Amino acid sequence: MGPHRASVWGVRMAEMKPPRKVTCPSCSSDFAPNSSSSKWCSSECRLKSKRKGFTCSRCFQQFSSDTKGRKVCDSCKTQACLAPGCSLDPSKTTVPFTKGYCNPHYLRLMSHGDPLKGGKSPNVRKAIDHSDGTRTCSKCQKRKLLADYYQDQNGSKGRRASCKACVNNKMRTYYLDNVEEKKSKTREIRRKNLYKIRARDMLRYEAQKDKRLALVESQVHIRRARRNQAPFDNGITRIALRKLQGDLCAYCGVSLNFVRARGRVFSGTDATIEHRLPLSRGGRHTWDNVVLACRDCNLSKGQKTEAEFEKYQLELLAAQSGQPPVDRNPSNESRTEQA
Rounded to the nearest 5 degrees, what angle is found at the Cα of 53, between the Cα atoms of 49 and 55? Predict the structure, then answer.
């Protein structure tokens, strides 16, 4: 028998065999599958068997659903809350009940052991947005810009319903009412994690050392200005003055050293902040009254004004050279000639 006649004979034998029958696991009916991988008689049975079983959180009965995360069956979804006197309509809420209770009564049940214990649930006001880009605060009922609300990824338009002022006032009031409890918790946490907190603080201090020292320097001058009851400006530091005035001393012109001193070893060229009119003589700690000066000029000037310091420098140079000092102020020369 040739190969062609053998293949024809095989086809005829296959046609003579009865069709294979398989039982559908969903409807339990016998059917002839189209392929060897077919297990269900129809697409409806296939989807039905693919549905996962869930346990209802109210009646604890098994039910099937195509929706992921569903915990309440259709029959229980129309039932009201088990707490007596609850006025919540279950058909109008999208939040599923837990163990037969709505969310407020379930939280009371978990906290106090009774769904009716605890205080009254607060009235939650929703944020009211307007077409001009403003929002009405749910606390103070004032219309403010969205920038006046803290960011919240779960809030409407990514913002909270209460403005920043109301939130800050609430947090401040809560802290003042529970200040001793907060302090005791903080002390207990620090006592248990003392070495971790110290190591973390050291790393943060080293990473932000320049900024912290600049802040300390600014606060020292502000404290001196307050002590002398003088006006002051914030942010006056050596780094800020360096960007405005350069690297030279305002009096002698020497190149200033801005490197931080180590071990309290100072140099005469170290950059310092000098007040043109001293604070003790009515000067102000403002941008127009401060200059960069080397440490030697700062110590030499002391509480002198710029005119007095210039005269002092001329007298010092004359004493060193053995010649009388020369007055560079032309007004004094004219006064001498008139006399």
Answer: 165
pLDDT in tens, 221-237: 999 999 999 999 998 99
| Distance of alpha carbon 292 from alpha carbon 270, whole angstroms | 10
* Lowest mean per-residue pLDDT among 97-111, 158-172, 247-261: 97-111
Residue 31 and residue 22 in contact, taking contact as beta carbons nearer than 8 Å: yes
Give the mean model confidence (pLDDT) for residues 169-189.
93
Structure tokens at 314: 């001329």
Q: What is the pLDDT of residues 24-76, one digit of tens each?
A: 776 777 877 776 667 777 777 766 665 556 666 656 676 666 555 556 676 76
Q: At what angle do helices 209-227 and 194-207 cross, to 10 degrees?
A: 80
HSE-CB of 267 using CA atoms within 13 angstroms: 12
The owner of tokens 């809560």 is: 174
Q: How far apart are CA 299 and CA 249, in angstroms?
A: 13
| Residues 20, 228: Cα–Cα separation, whole Å | 105
The radius of gyration computed from the CA coordinates of the chain, to the nearest angstrom, equals 42
SS3 116: coil
In the chain, what are the domains? 51-112 (no CATH), 133-177 (3.30.60), 209-321 (3.30.40)
